TrEMBL record:
Residues 1-24 form the signal peptide. Keywords: Signal. InterPro entries: Bact_solute-bd_prot1 (IPR050490). This is Extracellular solute-binding protein. It comes from Streptomyces ortus. It comes from the Bacteria. The keyword Protease does not apply.
Amino acid sequence: MPHTKLRRLVTISVAVTLGATALAACGSSDDDSEGDSGPVSLTYWSWTPGMDKVVDLWNDGQGKKDQIKVTVKKQASGDALVTKILTAHKAKKAPDLVQAEYQALPTLVSNDALADIADDVDGVQDKFAEGVWQQTTLGSDAVYAIPQDSGPMMFYYRQDLFKKYGLEVPTTWEEFAETARALKKKAPGTDLTTFSANDSGLFAGLAQQAGAKWWTTEGDKWKVGIDDAASRKVADFWGGLVKEGAIDNQPMYTPAWNKALNTGKQIAWVSAVWAPGTLTTAAPDTKGKWAMAPLPQWSASDDVTGSWGGSSTAVTTDSGHRSAAAKFATWLNTDPEALTALAKEGGIYPAATTAQTSDAFAEPPAYFSNQPDFYTRAADIAKTTAPSAWGPNVNVAYTTFNDAFGKAAKNKSDFGAALAQMQDDTVADLEKQGFEVAE
């Protein structure tokens, strides 16, 4: 049975918040696929808008030729979908294919819900940035999904207000801090940006850029590195800016945050490639006034970004048509026509590197019409995505982040203590579930 060491290591009872039970390590994921000759019908759970239209292209084209029909069933995203997949899998009734966020893959693999499709996707790896592909392998020689979309992080700023206040676009985090302080001196009522604790993916991406690997393995044990040197550097940096009042400490996605962006009270945002869609809604009056630049670096010689968001297409162990499902997953995320449709219908930024420079991205987002090279720059940035390291209880770490960093940001207290709380809660949860955890 291939890859049993990884499966033995991650086979667990999923956190109580997901309400799932453990399954045997040696499940159907290592069995041969059955029944892929002749007509095949597959079910795909996805939340991407317009996915049914993309799948129609398959059913009317390659799918008809190969006698493989796919039916899309729209679902919610996030933990709700993970819970639904695990519940269905417990009853051996999971769909053939599921859309899964990268950080959810270890949880699904640990419950033997995802099949290893490495033998069915030979040669696909080269179509993706190394840091993106790594998230679907969990650091092993198995392949548990095909990358679908990615969220390389970038720096967004009000071009007009930077010029008004005489500010330069920061290329390092040290310059970022100095820019925030300079703005406060010139316009005390204006903030460069805010530190927000209501979306843990932002901080995780920043830590990833700094070199953090929050979950790794050491022999047959999990090793949690949330409170490592790289993450502490990020926490201390942002905590220091909040404490001195150089930036705001309010959460994102609120009416107050929208107003701050729309009125120029906040003039920058550390975000990801999908930011134009958010800004279109949050700050409609500032269309055409923003610009995008690479994320500031910890050292002037560095060229690396983090990732905030993104998902993949996985084949479940309940599918009786694994090879057929893997063929569709590969087509969906590598075929030029499929990728163009995904960008048009679903509004996603594809993980496949060739698609990032395709005709679908020849024009910038309407909100950034003033920056014709938006997607050209985005593609270059995406290539520098750092590898991440997810574990089986990301949900526990993220929940603690929201609580501990939320309080620290509000009170302008020690971010380092909040990071240590994340570490402690994550380790305690792993041990509670029966994992061995390395010191």
